[in-house]
Amino acid sequence: MVKHTFFPCDAISLTEKILLAMIVQAQNCAEIQQYLKLLINHSVVTERHFTKNGGKYVYFETGLPENHVAVPESLTQHFVETSTDDVLFFLYFNENKQKLNFLEITLIAQNENAEYDEESIAHSVLDKMCFQAA
Q: Rounded to an integer, what distance in angstroms lies between the CA atom of residue 80 and that of residue 93?
């Protein structure tokens, strides 16, 4: 069962931006990182779906300017992915890779009653990205 929430042309939330930043940072190609930033900066949220199994789907509408950069040749798949110890993140594109389609966030739950807590996930991501000692 999926809980549907609809926000017409809503801005990307702060916690969603943190999760997207982690996905961008996890890419090992600077060209792909720049392209993802471009797509994210020109996207708005159209829908958010929370899943019964402790996850979330965030759907986007992307409006790139006409003079935008080409899709990087190194971007060969229709998604990019990363993970933390307990969460998987997949960011999907449309067929021609010129628009964001949706972000899938899935808990790797040890127990089936785990609940999705985006703020806690974002804090954990920020700690790993910025505040862990080298």
A: 9
**Residue 9 zone, left/alpha/beta (φ > 0; ψ -120 to 50; rest):** left
Torsion (CA) 64, 67, 72, 73 in degrees, nearest 10: 120
Residue 94: CB atoms within 10 A of its CB come to: 13
Number of H helices, E strands in the chain: 3, 6
User: Digits of tens for pLDDT over the chain (134 positions)?
Assistant: 445 455 456 889 999 999 999 999 999 999 999 999 999 999 999 999 988 777 899 999 998 877 777 899 999 999 999 988 888 999 999 998 999 999 999 888 666 666 778 888 888 888 887 776 55
**CA gyration radius for the chain?**
15
56 and 50 Cβ atoms separated by less than 8 Å: yes
> 110 and 131 in contact (C-beta within 8 Å)?
no
Residue with token string 């402790």: 54
Task: Report the alpha-carbon distance of residue 98 to residue 19 in Å, rounded.
Answer: 20
